[in-house]
Specification:
Layout lengths: L1 H17 L3 H7 L4 H15 L8 H17 L13 H16 L2 H7 L9 H14 L3 H24 L3 H25 L3 H4 L68 H6 L2 H43 L3 H23 L4
Helix pairs in contact: 1-3, 3-5, 3-7, 4-5, 5-7, 8-9, 8-12, 9-13, 12-13
């Protein structure tokens, strides 16, 4: 089965190199379309770099290395068909395509590329690899926010150059990045409604009527005379003599040995469960601090980035205004949605 999927993927890659479209390849193998699509789409993104034209020998060697690495990461038996794990396999394919097919120097050169340049698609593919390999939800939200800041700068450059189509395209990427921030934060932060929920106890059942007891004569209460405690006589006996070399009784510290003592020694005696509980509390505290820091950064960017776009709008020609308004709406909506999940 594993070799069968390798053959299918290899056939699709060959067809893409010959000029076939993505939909044509997927239609040939409908049973594997869900697994093939992210892999083939990543390959197409990398091939959009027009300045790159690797030799046939290098392309053959890269494809062979790709197949070998693909076979090594597949476990023997998993819940996925053919032992395939789409999330990590997609990241692996993206890395192999970026670094084997187009080369690491091209990826480095693409970091500062702009939306109107051929290497911009390579830049987006490299960003997707970073997101895929970021496992922490908070770190992933921070990365999406960082990518949103990059999109704002790209929109500003494209607007200055009068490139309306590029501004509209990057505005869509900006909205996607901020929506990803919101969805990632929503998975990590507690729901605002849960924090203020009050558990109201159920009303107690009505008491059963009990017949009133027969009136009895009130008992006579006798108040005893107060008892005055006798004052003890002063101690006149001398303290016992201490024999040199004799062992002394251990001094008892105040509160030692009392029930409910929660000293560090008691935690160690209780075993790893006590220490694990403390570790979990510390970890949760750290996550809360990271979320608070993320909220501060988002609040600042939610004020600065849309303001940057509005300043561009004031001096932009009429043909550019619609594209900039779309970018401003994407920024306002995205930051508002992300901050909604970070309310105290």
């Amino acid at each position: 089965m594993k070799h069968e999927f390798n053959d299918i993927l290899n056939d699709c890659l060959e067809r893409l190199l010959k000029g076939d479209g993505l939909e044509q390849c997927l239609s040939r193998y409908p049973d594997h379309a869900d697994e093939l699509e992210p892999l083939l789409r990543t390959s197409l993104m990398a091939r959009c770099a027009a300045s790159v034209s690797p030799s046939a020998e290098f392309r053959t060697r890269a494809r062979r290395d790709f197949q070998r690495a693909l076979a090594e990461v597949r476990p023997a038996k998993t819940g996925w068909s053919f032992g395939w794990q789409p999330r990590w396999a997609t990241a692996l394919v993206a890395c192999l395509v970026l670094f084997l097919v187009i080369g690491s120097s091209t990826v480095a050169a693409a970091r500062n590329s702009l939306p109107d340049q051929p290497l911009y698609q390579v830049k987006l593919a490299a960003e997707n690899v970073r997101v895929t390999f970021t496992t922490s939800k908070i770190k992933k939200a921070e990365l999406y926010a960082e990518l949103a800041d990059k999109r704002i700068k790209e929109i500003a450059v494209m607007a200055d150059q009068g490139k309306r189509q590029e501004v509209e395209m990057v505005a869509g990427l900006l909205r996607a990045s901020l929506m990803n921030v919101a969805m990632t934060v929503a998975e990590e932060a507690p729901e605002p409604a849960e924090a203020g929920v009050l558990m109201v106890p159920a009303p107690a059942p009505a008491p059963t009527a009990v017949p009133a007891p027969t009136q009895a004569p009130a008992p006579r209460i006798t108040i005893p005379p107060p008892v005055i405690a006798a004052v003890p006589a002063p101690i006149t006996q001398a303290p016992p003599a201490i024999t040199p070399g004799a062992p002394r009784a251990a001094a008892v510290q105040p509160g030692e040995g009392e029930p409910g003592d929660r000293s560090a020694e008691a935690k160690i005696q209780n075993g790893p469960a006590e220490l694990a509980s403390d570790s979990k509390i510390a970890r949760n505290g750290t996550d809360k601090e990271k979320l608070a820091k993320l909220k501060i950064n988002l609040l600042r960017h939610a004020r600065e980035n849309p303001e940057t776009l509005r300043e561009l709008l004031q001096n932009s020609p009429p043909a550019m205004r619609a594209a900039l308004l779309k970018a401003i709406a994407a920024a306002d909506d995205g930051y508002r949605e992300a901050l909604k999940h970070l309310k105290d």
